[in-house]
Design goal:
The structure holds two protein chains of two kinds. Chain A is mainly alpha-helical. Chain A has one domain. Chain A is 75% helix and 2% strand. In chain A, strands 1-2 form a two-stranded antiparallel sheet. The model of chain A has no long low-confidence stretch (mean pLDDT 85). Chain B is mainly alpha-helical. Chain B has one domain (2-57, 78-124): Helix Hairpins (Orthogonal Bundle), CATH 1.10.287. Chain B has helices at 2-10, 12-30, 34-55, 81-112, 117-124. Chain B is elongated. Classes of the chains: A mainly alpha, B mainly alpha. Chains A and B meet through helix 6 and helix 7 of A and helix 3 and helix 4 of B.
Chain lengths: 489, 125
């Protein structure tokens, strides 16, 4: 039974998504309980799967019995299982967050919304588990198509943002597919381990360089790496309030996981192609993203826009950690990835609550309600501590391990980049707090009603998780070091 | 230099791929009409699929069903089935993306009464 868990984790949300429009055709109000039940079951199964992987080692799943180089292989290793637990928990929180107020904002499209969310989750599960480059492309596109539709589901300005995301995202997917076909032409296989076996003989091949370049560009667009990030803030800002937390926390991070798989599982850490160490390139791109993203966040007035740019700079910090090529840096990067997924979800939950309850869109609006919503401000302070990286939160320990890894590798530019990005993050949160605490409170535009329980739950759980990540950073990093390291480190 | 120039024409299918890809990309970047952007996007996708097909062509090969079960398998006699499957999947993915894109275009037209990017941006302000 336990070796079937990866397939069950994927099929559960997929079948739920497919049957949702039929089952809920007459009974719209069933859609939320069904989605919550499916995602709660996924949380349990993914924890079971993680336990199983820790106890008995990784699970290899081969579809319909075709052996490895021929068939599509899924591997539930430590890294995939840990990320999957996070993914299902955040998905569950995202669906719980969608209370009746949001159902009004989604119009009559409630059933479509839940169908797309479940489809998105199943595609992300596929992306986490797969060890086949083309399979990764398919799930990347399934996830992307559900995200386009989810962003556009509310109509209005979001439609245009979704369209731009669609055009750029498809360009990214085409580039990725082009890269995969180059690699297929060179190696004759699509399985990651199989390609890794054949690569040492091909290091001087120009097709390999071209293929890798196209793949990294394609995935770079999907994960909003800095030169290719233009679609992301707009899409996440105009997306419905209940959609942006899930997209911001999961889609870009799982695309980043695809990048990690290719860098470490296909290429291997110490690889040097045409005198260019790949990891140095990763660290350099991360440095750029960390600094430029934070600068752009500093310039924003719209809070969702600011958080989205913050996410872009954090992707850079994760890449800096991964680019150090040692165990500390890798574990720090992955730890920061987990942490950042929670922080992004928390920030967009907060932005959603602030808009739905108080009509807050910009920093100035936030100043008007600051003192009248102490619990909102309290959660914001916790999230800000996490984003900046102050000691009791997970953000601090993530950056700590990343800096330790960079020092170990003697890479002082990376250390400086992480510190500079931290300072800039501090600057934009200071801007936020200045708006909240300096202005004298005036009358509210919107009379806040009773705050729905699900808002309190989601904000409370994510804020608590940011602190818990800090308190339990040592065991989590130890878990990552024991079970999630790539074979080449 | 001259040799490199002629070497390009040795492989006309790769040349076609490059032209179609860049053409699609050019349309995506320069046209303001949203449907034209989608056409450019579809050209890009199709060019990649064309590339995938052209690298996996095998002359004089038959369908991948064994001609004889007793003789040893001669791989050169059979076409590789994998690229076909990849191509089909990529086409399906492309069609799905195009469908979502056209649906978004239709919704944008209903909302703003225009498909011109600049006009829509003016109305968004």
């Amino acid at each position: 039974m336990s070796h079937q868990l990866p397939a069950i984790l994927f099929l559960l949300p997929l079948f739920a998504a497919i049957s949702m429009p039929v089952v809920c055709l007459k009974h719209r109000h069933w859609s939320q309980p069904i989605s919550v039940a499916i995602l709660a079951a996924m949380v349990l199964i993914s924890i079971l799967n993680l336990h199983n992987v820790i106890q008995h080692g990784e699970v290899r799943y081969v579809f319909s019995g075709w052996t490895v180089p021929l068939g599509i292989e899924w591997v539930a290793d430590g890294l995939a299982s840990i990320i999957l637990v996070l993914l299902s928990i955040l998905g569950l929180l995202g669906v719980v967050f969608t209370v009746p107020t949001f159902q009004k904002s989604l119009g009559g499209r409630v059933v479509h919304y839940y169908t797309l969310i479940l489809l998105l989750v199943s595609a992300l599960v596929g992306m986490v588990f797969t060890r086949d480059l083309f399979n990764l492309f398919v799930f990347l596109e399934v996830a992307a198509i559900s995200s386009y539709a989810l962003i556009g589901v509310a109509g209005g300005r979001a439609l245009f943002a979704a369209f731009r995301y669609l055009v750029l995202g498809t360009l990214g997917a085409s580039l990725y597919l082009l890269g995969v076909s180059y690699l297929y032409a060179v190696t004759g296989t699509l399985n990651m381990a199989d390609i890794a076996d054949r690569l040492p003989l091909l290091l001087s091949s120009k097709a390999l360089i071209g293929g890798l370049l196209f793949m990294f560009m394609g995935l770079g667009i999907k994960m909003a790496l800095v030169p290719f990030h233009a679609w992301m803030p707009e899409a996440y800002t105009h997306a419905p309030e209940s959609v942006s937390p899930i997209l911001a926390s999961l889609v870009t991070k799982v695309a980043l996981l695809g990048w990690i798989r290719i860098t470490y599982w296909v290429l291997g850490a110490p690889i040097v192609i045409f005198n260019i160490p790949i990891l140095l390139l990763v660290a350099a791109l991360g440095t750029l993203a960390a600094i430029i993203g934070a600068f752009l966040a500093l310039a924003q007035r719209n809070i969702k826009m600011m958080f989205a740019y913050g996410g872009i700079s954090h992707i850079g910090i994760i890449l800096i950690g991964l680019g150090q090529g040692n165990q500390t840096g890798f574990a720090g990067g992955i730890f920061y990835l987990l942490n950042d997924a929670v922080m992004q979800a928390a920030l967009f939950f907060l932005a959603g609550v602030a808009f739905c309850q108080y009509g807050v869109r910009t920093i100035d609006d936030l100043g008007r309600v600051g003192k009248q919503a102490p619990w909102l401000t309290g959660c914001l302070i916790v999230m800000a501590l996490g984003m900046i990286g102050l000691p009791p939160t997970g953000g601090f320990f993530g950056k700590w391990y990343i800096i330790l890894g960079a020092l170990e590798a003697g890479n002082y530019v990376s250390v400086a980049a992480v510190l500079l990005s931290t300072l800039l993050t501090l600057a934009y949160f200071v801007k936020l707090f200045e708006a909240i605490f300096r202005q004298s409170s005036t009358q509210l535009d919107v009379q806040p009603g009773e705050i729905p329980l699900s808002f309190k739950w989601t904000l409370g759980i994510t804020s608590a998780a940011i602190i818990l990540f800090g308190l339990f950073s040592a065991p989590i990093v130890q878990l990552l070091l024991n079970h999630a390291l790539p074979p080449s480190l | 230099m001259v040799e490199a120039f002629f070497a390009v024409f040795q492989r006309p299918n790769f040349l076609t791929f490059v032209i179609v890809f860049l053409w699609g990309f050019y349309i995506m970047v320069t046209r303001y009409n949203l449907v034209k952007k989608l056409i450019g996007m579809y050209l890009v996708q199709t060019s990649v699929i064309f590339f995938l097909v052209s690298i996996s062509v095998k002359k004089g090969a038959t369908i991948p069903v064994l001609l004889s079960t007793t003789e040893p398998v001669q791989a050169a006699n059979y076409a590789n089935p994998l690229p076909h499957v990849l191509t089909l999947t990529a086409i399906v993915v492309g069609v799905a993306t195009l469908g979502v894109g056209l649906a978004l275009c239709a919704a944008i037209y209903r909302k703003y009464g225009s498909l011109d990017e600049e006009e829509i941006l003016e109305r968004l302000e």
